[in-house]
Design goal:
The two termini are 23 Å apart. It is globular and about 60 Å long. It contains 7 helices and 20 strands. It folds into 4 domains: 68 residues, 2-Layer Sandwich (Uridine Diphospho-n-acetylenolpyruvylglucosamine Reductase, domain 2); 113 residues, 2-Layer Sandwich (Uridine Diphospho-n-acetylenolpyruvylglucosamine Reductase, domain 3), CATH 3.30.465; 31 residues, no CATH class; 103 residues, Alpha-Beta Complex (Uridine Diphospho-n-acetylenolpyruvylglucosamine Reductase, domain 1). The mean pLDDT is 97. The chain has a 5-stranded antiparallel β-sheet with strand order 6-7-12-10-11. It has a 4-stranded mixed β-sheet with strand order 1-2-5-3, with helices on one face. A 4-stranded antiparallel β-sheet has the order 13-19-18-17. Helix content is 25%, strand content 27%. Strand 17 and strand 18 form a beta hairpin. Helix 3 crosses helix 4. The protein is an alpha+beta fold. Bound molecules: uridine-diphosphate-2(N-acetylglucosaminyl) butyric acid (EPU). The site of uridine-diphosphate-2(N-acetylglucosaminyl) butyric acid has 21 residues, from strand 13 and helix 6. Uridine-diphosphate-2(N-acetylglucosaminyl) butyric acid binds next to strand 13 and helix 6.
Amino acid sequence: MEIHTNIPLKNYTTMRLGGNARFMAEAHTPEDIAALSRNSKKQGLPIFILGGGSNIIAHDEGFSGLVVRNRIPGFEILEDDASHTIVRIGAGENWDDIVKRTVEMNLTGIEAMSAIPGTAGAAPIQNVGAYGQEIADTLVSLEAYDNITDSFVVLQNQDCAFSYRHSIFRGEASGRYTVTSITLQLYKAPPQPPFYKAIEDYFTTNGITMFTPQIIRDAVINIRTEKLPDPKITPNTGSFFKNALIEDWQLNELKKKYPDIPSYDMPDGKFKIPTGWLIEQTGLKGKTLHGMRIHDKNALVLINASATSYQELAAARDEISSAVRDQFRITIEQEPLEI
Ligand code: EPU
């Protein structure tokens, strides 16, 4: 395994910011992950596992340890019967290649998560979700390297404690596990309505009345192309903030002043408020702060228009959060993780 030194993280993160990684290596097998983890532990070096870099913000001072790019491949059918297929996917596979492949097999379960940048192994970390599906709905288990016990483990779905854009990997077990593969259960029955509102609207507009995984995938790709900038062309990390979760009394208070506030019921009695709507109400949509532009088609997305430092991004983020807090008394949270 080759170890490279002083590698600019901005070339490996889609926001295109940040200093250098002191060391960088690529892992192509689970054994590579184990060897790199053990070695960096021995040398007292911090380690950070990078997937596609599409949900990571790098700091200006860079990372003084080892960044490992997870490139572990794999697509293996473990079980296949009349109703479902169980497939094991290498953590380094490109997520959308996998979605495309399962859709071509006419399987349902992840088709609405089409065109999301990043790798398969990163999907469980933040419980990736879009257009009515999240990885928690189809993930059976995952294999990971546990760098505390220095061994490979299998974590079942319930071990991951998934909730909205959250899991143990962003919480109590942050930094402990490196995902090496994910196992998904996908279904042969066609996708069933009702679909996410944006998809329903798309079907109505286009007169679509038959639903297959491919039809859902095509709809999602068209909707996303319209609302989300392509990170290959325009530096961004998708949604920069999480949607806000508030209590019912807070929603009742807000409704007095903002009767049109959109809200969605959550399973735990809370309500999800679209942060894009909150930001739009502050008047910041389409504006540029410190070189960061609030996307004019979706205020949840921050585009790096001309920022050259994490500091500029942080200044823009803090101004946006303050504007939302001042107007709504809601504290919004950043979605991408930081290195
Ligand atoms: N809205 C506005 N103004 C805006 C943006 C949104 O008013 O500028 C309101 C509208 O009421 C709209 C609602 O927000 O109906 C929801 O918007 P949308 O369906 O576009 O979804 P979102 O809440 O902006 C979330 C995910 C996206 C995912 C979409 C579709 C989060 C943080 N983001 O966005 O995920 O694609 O739903 O399911 O939950 C990502 O995580 O990077 C991501 C793109």
